Amino acid sequence: MTVPTIPSALPVAHRLYVMRLYRRSLKLAASWYWQRSEYCEKAMIIRSMFDENKNVTNLRHAQELLAHTENLLGIYNHSDPYISPTAPGGSKWERNVPFPEELVRRGVTIYDKN
Predict the structure, then answer these.
(1) Mind giving me the DSSP string for 47-69?
(2) Which residues make beta-bridge pairs with 58?
(3) Each residue of 48-75: pLDDT tens digit?
(4) Do 26 and 80 meet the contact criterion of CB atoms below 8 Å apart?
(5) Whole-angstrom Cα distance, residue 21 to residue 50?
(6) Looking at the chain, which runs of residues are DSSP E strands?
(7) What share of the chain is helix, strand, coil (3-state, %, to 5)?
(8) Rounded to whole angstroms, how far apart are CA atoms 22 and 20?
């Protein structure tokens, strides 16, 4: 019995999935390790884990590795993930919203009562 390998059409989708999984892993590490030095250490460990399995061509083994990584991300999920202050949901999001241009053109100011 032959072991299925990753077909030629799949690597693009597979590569995108692995890249997104790697990015999610780094974002999760950033939520847990707020000090830059600790985060960099964890990022190097995550990178080495992904590099160890970079040349896997066995489709079943690759799927098992991806499922295991998804499981680890679920286990280590942070209850309050880090959100950049200027990103949607961050503490500075829409803090100083500019005055609408339409009202400026009509001559309305922030001091008008109507």
Answers:
(1) HHHHHHTTT--BHHHHHHHHHHH
(2) 5
(3) 999 999 888 888 898 999 999 999 999 9
(4) no
(5) 10
(6) none
(7) 55, 0, 45
(8) 5
